[in-house]
Structure to design on (434 residues):
């Protein structure tokens, strides 16, 4: 385990914890995007470039867009 | 069950789960152990027999191609499910008032940036799909990048407020054709070589673009299907905002 | 060591799901739990000193990381996105039908 890998693991663990404990969905989306990036870096450091590419594209493009659209829709419903 | 009781029950169950997980996980082979036979075989077989340099793509689309078929169909079904769930509500409100005020559209900077980026992103997506068996990438990644390009089109367009002018039918057709193409290639392998998903096209030399036989075809099929599925889901979400 | 992080992520994600007050928060906690499976899969395949299993610039024969688990993980990542989409669609429907996105309240409203 190189230092970089341990650091990546620590960042992922911290990001995961923060994602769970931030209750408000809008802020949580940003943190979840950060978790996605941290995971992508973890995958790169562990020698998995394909998975890292998938993860970057999905967790920083597709998932935040969907969540933000859903949140906007929910906000509209509340009116 | 009240919230507090639920949390306490969960904490108890989590402790048991954590203990079992640790007991199991710590018994797994350590990273310094020699790689398992599947790893050694797949890396050697993929390069020599299938002539691909990206062994992950070789494994995904050839050595374990049936798994990918199943997962791709999960994608298809999930996109259909999301579309059905969101569309059932949309039809109720389709006769809503049409006198929504004119939205000034996306700000100029966003529009310029998005329109300039759409072309390169599409090319990038095509590149990643086509080179999936040579360098990291492949159908899944490239497909999502395609979908991102289409999302950029919506971000740049003025149509967000007035009239959702998006070809939903053609997106669905693209997605269905991609999924069907994968199944057809699998069946063709069954017909031609007696084994489903057999790599029956010419293999070419490793490192060239046209190597790997059916792997390239499958990559393109998956790329089309993933792009269609993700775009479909995103447009459904967008419609929810626009048409209500 | 990565196994510990995977187990931890799973447990913390599940904790978030159980104690959630907002359905979108719940969906994002499910993503955290899903990421634990990715870490676990990759940790299983990792070998010390192994390089990425792409041979376009490596001579064949260098020790590499296991590509089989990477193949499993990468399709998993994309499938996760669509599962999140379905869950979000259900959330939107729940908001329309029941007017609330609090899981605790949803339990009380029936029919």
């Amino acid at each position: 385990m190189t230092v970089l890998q341990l650091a990546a693991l620590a960042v992922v663990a911290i990001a995961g914890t923060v994602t769970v404990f931030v209750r408000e969905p809008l802020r949580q989306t940003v943190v979840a995007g950060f978790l996605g990036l941290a995971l992508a870096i973890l995958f790169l450091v562990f020698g998995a470039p394909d998975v890292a590419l998938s993860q970057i594209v999905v967790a920083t493009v597709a998932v935040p867009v969907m969540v933000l659209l859903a949140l906007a829709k929910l906000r509209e419903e509340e009116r | 069950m009240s919230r507090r009781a639920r949390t306490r029950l969960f904490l108890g169950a989590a402790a048991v789960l954590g203990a079992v997980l640790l007991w199991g996980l710590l018994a797994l082979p350590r990273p310094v152990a020699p790689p398992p036979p599947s790893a050694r075989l797949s890396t050697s077989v993929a390069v020599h027999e299938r002539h691909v340099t990206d062994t992950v793509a070789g494994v995904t689309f050839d050595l374990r191609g049936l798994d990918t078929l199943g997962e791709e169909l999960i994608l298809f079904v999930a996109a259909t499910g999301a579309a059905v769930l969101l569309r059932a509500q949309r039809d109720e409100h389709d006769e809503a008032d049409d006198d929504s005020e004119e939205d000034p559209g996306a700000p100029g900077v966003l529009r310029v940036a998005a329109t300039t980026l759409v072309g390169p992103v599409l090319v990038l997506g095509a590149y990643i799909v086509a080179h999936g068996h040579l360098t990291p990438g492949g159908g899944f990644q490239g497909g999502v990048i395609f979908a991102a390009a289409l999302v950029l089109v919506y971000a740049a367009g003025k149509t967000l407020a007035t009239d959702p002018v998006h070809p939903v039918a053609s997106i669905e057709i693209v997605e269905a054709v991609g999924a069907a193409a994968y199944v057809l290639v699998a069946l063709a392998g069954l017909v031609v070589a007696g084994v489903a998903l057999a790599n029956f096209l010419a293999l070419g030399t490793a490192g060239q673009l046209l190597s790997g036989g059916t792997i390239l075809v499958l990559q393109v099929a998956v790329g089309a299907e993933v792009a269609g599925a993700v775009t479909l889901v995103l447009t459904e979400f967008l419609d929810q905002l626009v048409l209500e | 060591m990565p196994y510990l992080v995977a187990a931890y992520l799973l447990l913390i994600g599940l904790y978030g799901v159980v104690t959630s007050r907002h359905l979108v928060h719940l969906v994002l906690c499910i993503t955290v739990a899903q990421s634990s499976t990715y870490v676990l899969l990759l940790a299983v395949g990792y070998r010390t000193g192994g390089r990425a299993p792409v041979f376009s610039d490596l001579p064949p024969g260098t020790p590499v990381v296991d590509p089989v688990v990477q193949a499993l993980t990468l399709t998993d990542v994309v499938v996760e996105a669509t599962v999140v989409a379905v869950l979000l669609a259900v959330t939107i429907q729940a908001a329309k039908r029941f007017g609330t996105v609090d899981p605790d309240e949803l339990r009380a409203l029936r029919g």
